[in-house]
Specification:
The structure holds two protein chains of two kinds. Chain A is mainly beta. Chain A contains one helix and nine strands. Chain B is α+β, with helices and mostly antiparallel strands. Chain B has one domain. The chains are: A mainly beta, B alpha+beta. Chains A and B meet through strand 4, helix 1 and strand 5 of A and helix 1 and helix 2 of B.
Chain lengths: 135, 77
């Protein structure tokens, strides 16, 4: 099974814990923004007004040496990185009107089971306001 | 809010399977040990609140985001 399968086009993941701030929303869809690759839209299936721009974390080169907490991996049934996919939520910074990515609280997915979770990492070098300069 | 006073090495039980123990108390800092099932998320409150607030600030606003996406996105070759 390819890790690209579920988030290749438009794909739904179950978030048992919702997202911080949206704990009651348990299912989100990753939708392509066809006009604006590589960005995607993470949209609640229950409340479509709740959506955020996300980006594949592998494009940022910040997670290669990050050790994901074992208990978080276990919650999603991830024994290793084979089916792990990482996304970061983007926000527009008020002052600069630039995109910043929350690398400190990425979304991790198990592409085999279809479950996801937003986790909070302690690793140094990660930031809630990672500036996107180049992709 | 339920308020309980505990000394070092004393604990609080929440529900059937969450136990919080005061491990150390020094200079205004308290070290807590938390025994909880792995599926129960545990976070420092201020960190969780900050992530909540940043998620809410990330909500998609088509008018504002569209222009920024246009300037940022590269097309596939």
């Amino acid at each position: 099974m390819t890790t690209e399968t579920r988030t290749g086009s438009s794909t739904t993941y179950k978030f048992e814990y919702g997202l911080p701030g949206f704990e009651n929303l348990s299912e989100f869809e990753f939708r392509n923004l066809d006009e604006f690759p590589p960005f995607k839209l993470l949209q609640s299936t229950d409340m479509p007004d709740i959506s955020m721009i996300v980006l594949d974390g592998s494009l940022l080169n910040v997670f290669e040496n990050v050790s994901f907490p074992k208990h978080e991996m276990n919650i999603l049934g991830l024994e290793n990185r084979e089916y792990l996919r990482i996304f970061v939520i983007l926000r527009i910074e008020e002052e600069t009107k630039h995109f910043v990515a929350n690398t400190k609280a990425p979304i991790i997915l198990n592409t085999y089971t279809g479950f996801g979770k937003q986790i909070i990492l302690d690793s140094p070098g990660l930031s809630e306001d990672y500036k996107l300069d180049n992709l | 809010m339920l308020v309980l006073t505990r000394k070092t090495e004393e604990s609080i039980r929440i529900g059937n399977n969450i136990v919080i123990t005061v491990l150390e108390c020094n200079n205004g800092h308290t070290k807590l040990g938390i025994n909880a099932p792995k599926e129960v998320p545990v976070h420092r409150e201020e960190v969780y609140e900050r992530i909540k607030s940043k998620n809410k600030a990330s909500l998609f606003n088509k008018n504002i985001t569209h222009e920024i996406l246009k300037s940022f996105s590269k097309k596939d070759p």
